[in-house]
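Usage example:
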Amino acid sequence: MQWKVKISIKLKSGVLDAQGKATHKALLAIGFQKVQEVRIGKLIELKLEGDSRTEVEKQIQEMCQKLLANPVIEDFVYEIGEL
Amino acid sequence: MKFGVVQFPGSNCDYDCYYALKYVLRVPTAFIWHKEKDISGYDCIVLPGGFSYGDYLRVGAIARYSPVMKAVVDFASKGGLLIGICNGFQILTEAGLLPGALIRNHCLRFICKPQNIRVENIETPFTNRCQKGQVLKVPIAHGEGCYYADQKTLEELEENNQVLFRYCDIEGEITKAANPNGSLHNIAGICNKKRNIFGLMPHPERSMEECLGSTDGRLIFESIINYLQTDSLILKD
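Running the assembly step on the lines above writes:
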């Protein structure tokens, strides 16, 4: 079976997000006064083969821990869908 | 005694390190290609600066899985001396050989300038030729040099005297103004508990000769040479 996975990775809450801060300031400067915080992360989309959702999930967990995210500074969440 | 300078695709300080060791300090030095699986015969491995694998995904994240890294980890686990400079430091943290991580500079800019750093611990293979509290002038050139670690890790680093260099002003004062990138505790370089793995953001290989404005970088490489020649220091277990 083919699966499509969306992984979002963001900096942990305690880690300073300099990009997010600068973008927040820019949003305020152009009039979006109600914005309270901006955090910038990344989105990774991938397609893969797998016999079951459980198997795919196991693979994704391992990929994130080993390479896609750095557990020292980042958290990740993912959505798995059938293709 | 033999030094090995690892070349990843995108390394760009490899020749500077090679030149500094081979032609300034006149010690046997060779390049090690990132696909090499055997690194026997070396006494110190240098992971140089640059933009390995284009800094894709995260700085150092892909280089850390380069074929040569397995041998490098093995070498270091047996007590071999390993130094990571700039991108090399980022690779060491990504590989879990040093704690913490290096994230985007506080100011969001790439910074390239001479920087004062203070020597914090001289009882290591990398700093034994320095004086405690000595201020060195060594250039920095990075976009992701802000050292981050959680509170517990920071406490451990301080407790074990693993912080070898901090960003400081010309007087050696550790101030916020002297911190170029927002690094926690003004950290510029740390070593592991055992003291055989060292990572730093400043570039000692770019401050080897008077014509470059400083020769302070020599102290770091001379410390390594001194250590290898005399074995006067005993590494921690």
